[in-house]
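Table S4 entry, AraC-like DNA-binding protein.
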Amino acid sequence: MIKNIQFSYIIPLVFFFLPLLKTYSYSKTLFIQSLYNQDSILNLDYNKIESLYKKDFANKEVAQYLAKCYLSKAQIDNAKYKIAKGYYLISKISNNTDRLKYLDSLIEMTKGDIHYIYPGLGYLNKGRVYFRLGENSNALKNYLIALDYAEKRNNTSQIFAINHNIGLLKNSSGDIDGSIKLFKNNLKFIKKTDTFKNKYSYLVNTLFALSNSYHNAELPDSARTYVNYGLRESIKIDDQETYSTFLILSGINSYMSKNYNKALDTLFKIKKRLQDSLLYDEADAIYTNLQIAKIYFKLNKKEKAYNYLSTLDTLIDETNYSKERRPALELLIEYYKYKNDVENQLKTVTKLLHLDSITNIKNENLKSDLVKKYDTAKLLKERDTIIKSLRIEKSASKFIILTISIILIILTFFVYNYYKKKKLYERRFNLLIEENSIKNQKEENHNKIVNKEEIDLHEDVISDLLEKLETFENKNLFLDRSIKLNSLAERFSTNSAYLSKIINHYKNKNFANYINDLRVDYCITRLKSDKKFRLYAIKYIAEESGFSSVQSFSRAFQKKTGINPSYFIKNIQNQKVE
């Protein structure tokens, strides 16, 4: 009897709730429209509609409704730049695909106009979308178009924003020094100007970017200055969201300083604060989970780390993968290896190779040779071990054989390309080690053989300058970073034209290449003979070799030797060259 009574209540309840579930989406739309009647909205001025849009921005459905009302009003009024603004407002709360569509509409409408904001704003935001998608080449292309428009119209706020985003691009491609320089220039600019409408927003974004760049450079002490600066600024106006963001950076600082428990405590608190916020999104989830997982691995608590890594595995895909998120998959591979879970290990290795290949294709014109944790030999060994294990554990069905064959083809393709490049670098390295002394002897012989009558200078002048150049080289005076053609000519009591002619003729290179080659030769010789020198940071090695920056050092080294300095240093350490 009791069962029948209970069942008699269930039946009408089911029929009562089913239509409610079916009409939920429609009811939600009616609810939004009841909050903001479209006719009433269209009677408001544009500033008021935009104000309501910003107020309800965290509620995507409401914000989208208001943005479309703004666009409808502009289309009714046939107000060209208001229509463009409407496209921009809708794009901000759209997914990446729709966002590009609305931004293209904005650009198409204003492309031929001389306007202070448009179409530069459209190109800037297209660049941001492509950057989020990991398409750095397309991002750079749009940033440069936006910069051209902004500079022609002297739009300082757009120039600032574009430089900021190019800084993020440099950071992503490994040019950390270049990104820090851009961010510091922006910081100087914003400190001395009061014309920016959203000065606070520009300031904290710059402080965040600088902190993050120094973290990427593994310089937590330098990062701490900007983290604390950001914390102070956010406290001043009680900005809880920004305060939470800088607390995350503070937690990372603790992690990098090996204060793991303090870092965990900070990150857990911030994760909860962010989750309670309406603005908590996928990027926040990936960022916080990755930092927590890394700390647990450092503490050798792999099972706890896995709880966060498995979440990251579901979140990271082709649409949001970047080198900053690569450690999540690397740690996951390490965990599966620790658990001897070969199937998931293979699956994750394949996913990592696939995502890396897509990233390299998307960014083929940018620096794509990022440092990989798993080199060719290791991947080949893992592949063979996994395949052997799978053959033992599972029957050799056609489906499994086909799957393994496909994986083999994919792995072989990537391994071949990586191996080919590695062998090229090895050949160049070995030639460099073997031929250094031979090269010096050849250069001495060449200087003796050249006929001094071939250039229009007195023989005494030629002999004098060659003797001074020899002294200059033997005493390593080229290590002076301030050396220029004019200053060296003055030191030699001659003019720059004579000195340039002597160097071009007897050294077979211009002055800049002559100095750079001497510095690179000095660096190579010292690296071969000085074990301590090999242990220095690359920035210090560059400075000790006479270069003013890591970038100029790397370019000169690559140009002369065909390999980058970090590869040379790593291999000379491994080979223990004396």
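Confidence is low (pLDDT under 50) at residues 1-31, 365-378, 444-453.
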